[in-house]
Amino acid sequence: MSHDNLPVKDPDLGHSVPDPGLEPHVERYTDVDKGAGNRAYAAILMMLAAVPVLAIAFVVIYFAVPRNAYIDFGLLKANAQNVGFGLTGGLAAVLIGVAVIQWARVLMSDEESVELRHAASSTDDDRAAVMGLWDDGVEQSSVRRRKLLLGALGGAVGISLVPAVVLLADMGPHPTKRLREETLERTIWAEGILLLNDENWLPIRPEMLEVGQLVNAQPANLRYLHGVEAHQAKAKAAIIVVRMDPNSIKVPESRKDWHVSGILAYSKICTHVGCPISLWERQTHHLLCPCHQSTFDLGNSGVVVFGPAARALPQLPITVNADGYLVAQSDFTVPVGPSYFERDSSQDFKDGDQ
Q: How far is CA 161 from CA 44, 155, 158, in A?
């Protein structure tokens, strides 16, 4: 058997492959030519200095350019704000990256070194040596000789965060107590608003409903809203109207005048995650949410009898107007829909309340 192709063992280090050593060092152009080094230094500073300008331009575009403004590129029509954001924000990020890379390529120390592998655990001497290397690295990074570099980089990165902070404004206004009371915690229901069947948009009279029947309904003033406003109002104001035998339901003293001969109105929005509910069990008076099986007892003020929902279904106080149609007595007394951190749950109905 021939042994000509087997690796040769280095007799000094005990390695199967001889140590190739370091290649001859070739000086960089910016190290040989001081003028070239200064020009590279100036170019890096210019790139980092452009980042704050671009960040300010980003903010100006956010406030100055209308959101419905578009730029026509022929086959492509793009939102002007988005184009501006992409150009200013994207170029700022590119300039920071190019500046850092160029800094490492032409200004940082360009010396080759070899470090033998050491044990996993470091000795005190090794730790001291690492700190020494850290100091050497700081020295080699040129930040002590070219002191503006570190400040320019920090300023560029810091100012580049400003556009991101500005964009947080698009998440909506801060949910103050007053704002919640005017938005999340109210619907368009009010005293005297007619209950309309949402299939034919006709007002509902008590005699139209049979015992055990469920009807989906909406407020009459929803017809005067359009677009987004209408969808938002409908999402909160949707109700179900059910008729039950008055002798088979439990009506607390505080709600004795909230129904009309066993006809009750409840929010159609589940208090768990906001799914619309209409799975009605006539015999048990239970309303089942199809999403996560939360079950509410409409014969007992909408309390939860099963599932993950933690709050009773809000009930809408109703009565009959002079023309014999079902109308609301007021808005819901508690916010409809899922819970949220700032919500006051002290007024929610609980089984046994009067």
A: 20, 10, 6
